[in-house]
Amino acid sequence: MKNILSDRYEPKNIESKWIEFWEKNQTFKPKGEGEPFCIVIPPPNVTGVLHIGHALNHTLQDIICRIERKKGKDVLWLPGTDHAGIATQVVVERELEKQGKSRRNFSRKEFIEKVWEWKEKSGGQITKQQRLLGESVDWTRERFTMDEGLSHAVIKVFKTLYEEGLIYRGEKIINWCPKNLTAISDIEVEYKEVKGNLYYIRYPVKGTKDYVVVATTRPETMLGDVAVCANPKDERYASLKNITLILPILNREIPLLFDDFVDANFGTGLVKITPAHDPYDFEASQRLGLKPINIMNPNATLNENAGKYKGYDRFEARKAIVQELQELGLLEKIEPYVHSVGHNMRGGAVIEPYLSTQWFVNVKPLAQEAIEVVKSGQIEFIPKVWEKTYFEWMENIKDWCISRQLWWGHRIPAYYTQKGEIVVAESLEEAIQIFHQKGIHVSKEEVIQDEDVLDTWFSSALWPFSTLGWPNQTSDLQKYYPTAVLVTGFDIIFFWVARMIMMGVKFQKNVPFRKVVIHGLVRDKYGEKFSKSKGNTIDPLDMMEKYGTDSFRFFLAASLPEARDILFDESRLDGYRAFCNKVWNSCRFVLMNLPENFAIRPILENELEPSDVWVRFRFNECLSKYEKAYSHYLFFEMASQIYDFFWGDFCDWYLELTKPRIYGQNQKSKEVALQNLVQVLSQALHLLHPFMPFITEELNSALQGGLLSLSPWPESFELSSASISNQKINYLIEIISEVRVIRANLKIPPDKKCKVILKTNHDLVRAIIQEEYNSFLQLGKMESITIDNSYTPNQTDSISAFTSGEIILPLTGMIDLEKEKERLTKERNSLILEIEKIQKKLQNNEFLTKAKPEIVQKEKEKWEILKN
Questions:
Q1: Where are the alpha helices (DSSP H) in 191-313?
Q2: Which residues contact 734 (CB under 8 A, 6 or more apart)?
Q3: Which residues contact 472 (CB under 8 A, 6 or more apart)?
């Protein structure tokens, strides 16, 4: 075996090579052998590009799949994309605008054809980028939420839930986008802190000259007020029961009522009730028997219920109404007020809470079963702390608005007659049959299908079983459902995870997955969310291009603390690129020293020298800790274990300790050293592979051939006794490391070799010095190392302790003692000044209150380190 690697590690070359090889050979298509193990990928939007969140989430899934595949499981990692209703329609409409056209220039059918055309030409960018990340998915099973099979599943679920009374059509407050003219999901609403005003408006009391004052941030909605409300426990208004108020401007009579939902500490303690434009007001109106008044058109202009303000834009109306209130003497005051305002994540329009007739799911009955499967342990959240969040959401769940006023998406399978009679069916033909069964005789031309489409999250909720072929009882569904693990960010536990659990339990009578691994988000190094408006976004493709994909993947996994967010610090990527170079060069060194006829053979334990035993033992420890971390999905700990072993134990120590044997005259010792180097290196590549698939696949093919991706998971080396060898090498490492520290602290020039004297009575220290004398000299830059318990140190010697004795470095001739004394004095004075500076900061109240918490914490940590 002789396969020499190039002298430079070039990520691009090997990445493109293995991406093509894996897909061409369908390497990751399940082979039908072993215990089934399935992960369905959280489907990214078909309009999207690979962002930093995708890169993290997909890397973690890939690590799991590659490990389980190597452990002998029949792994299916199923890829796919989401049709992304609003986002996709917006993209296509923008393309039409460039041609001077709009959606309305086409029939619905023609527009949908345009979207499919766009999808075929431009909709695959995200999956191409997933390939660049090295994802080991089965591309032959790729799905799309608008596939024919998935569409069939969506319609069947809708019909079933409708027939059971769990889906209904009704009037409720929803998130409305006046720009896109559609209801949108809660997750598509981005709340931003906005500098606004709190307007204090006087509402006259009927028949008197008195008035009450109500505070609001949205004075334009007062035209839709149906009452003013106080908390029944608020003694300030106890005497005002049964009074009637006059709504300013419109002069409509409205009651003053009492309800517990009012926060007595907000504004004046009185709130206006505007049921058509506020979700809490709507709920209060239901309790209080009040009829909503909608004052807005879908485009957020005011309608006929707004009186003379009909036709005004909502924000124009605000200014005009405030001016009129001032002129009428009904505006008591205006205060600056910062509050949270919902914006559409796609386009940025301010969301309007809007009373609208929509389709809803009554999810409480579904939620109860979904709660039970987590409480009973059928589904495990990792970390477990997220179960509390899940329960809080599910126990307070509200009906889910599932209709969207779009053309692109799964069209709601509801059919109407001209008289408004309604049926839900899987097709127009079936709808007519149902109408006939009800005694309603209509033709195709007399039946209209609902214009709305379903919320994208509705089809995504079916993803774990619809992608496997349901409603057909396919072999994939029978084999791979329930799936094994779901890996996702905490931000979609309710919007997606909970809904998948509800739908899986309902339609499969089983959970959709056994474990939910929750990871944090990736933020910038200051802890801020990535945002285009902040200009702090990171393009993963840029990072992969600059540092190599393996370095980038390793960084993501190694930087992910348990249950916390990643702080993205690009400087760390340099370190992981250096690690890749280290791995590459170590493998290249081994290959360069292998004879032409080299073949791996078992090594008898009595052939092993102490360093051989030690490195095998260290690998066994690494493997054990790695697997324990993996059992808890502690990816950062797994990465830490293999990094420390590879860089420290293998490269820094074992590789260096074998060099005298490789270049020496003892052929037996050389052959065993090379055998052990290859075998330990090969095993270590297995552990590194899930994090760094490209470089490890390339190195393995050079080292021993075959596909590392499909090679069995490594086992521990058999060692009947490793204690004495370990102690010997540990002494060697401890002594050399301490000598290096002394040299560094005293700034002894690298070209000056030092004498080292040990004081010790330990036989193993004496033995390892004899066995590895040349290694001590080479690795410690020593002129000599001796044991002399009678040596009397002088004042210029450096003395340091180690586990079984003392290390003495005579410094005469090694350094300029006067200069060293001067240097230490300067360092001491500088340290004292730094301590005083930090102390002043920490005693400064202005610094403590105005500085960011993480900066204050860093100063405190510095103080603790320096004072000790």
A1: 279-288
A2: 802, 803
A3: 149
- Distance (Å, rounded) from C-alpha 405 to C-alpha 411? 10
Alpha-carbon gap, residue 545 to 11, rounded angstroms: 9
Q: Which of 658, 662, 679 is nearest to 600 (CA)?
A: 679
Q: Report d(CA 675, CA 584) in Å as an integer.
A: 18
Closest CA to 86 of 297, 347, 352: 347
Residue reference for tokens 């510095």: 862
Query: What span, in angstroms and rounded, lies between the C-alpha atoms of 93 and 132?
Result: 29
> Is pTM, for the whole model, over 0.70?
yes
Residue 371 parent element (H or E) = helix 364-375
What distance in Å separates the CA atoms of residue 625 and residue 162, rounded to the nearest whole number? 51
- CB neighbours of 151 closer than 8 A, spacing ≥ 6? 410
Q: Residue 1 — very low, low, confident or very high, per pLDDT cuts 50/70/90?
A: very low
Nearest CA-CA partner of 84 in 214, 188, 162, 6 = 188
Closest of 759, 777, 764 to residue 727, by C-alpha:
764
Half-sphere exposure of 536 toward its Cβ, with a 13 Å CA cutoff? 15
Distance CA 520, CA 130 (A): 20
Integer Cα distance of 479 and 75 in angstroms: 11
CB 269 within 8 A of CB 214: no
d(CA 45, CA 52): 14
Q: At what angle do helices 549-558 and 571-592 cross, to 10 degrees?
A: 120
**pLDDT digits over 377-433, tens only?**
999 999 999 999 999 999 999 999 999 999 999 999 999 999 999 999 999 999 999
Helix axis angle, 667-688 to 635-643, nearest 10°? 160
**Cα-Cα-Cα-Cα dihedral of 405, 408, 409, 413, to 10°?**
60
Q: Compute the distance between CA of residue 726 and CA of residue 454 in angstroms, rounded to an integer.
A: 64
Contact between residue 520 and residue 565 where contact means Cβ atoms under 8 Å apart: yes
The DSSP letter of residue 493 is I
> What Å distances lie between residue 322 and 272, 278, 300, 325, 337, CA to CA?
16, 20, 18, 5, 16
DSSP bridge partners of 748? none
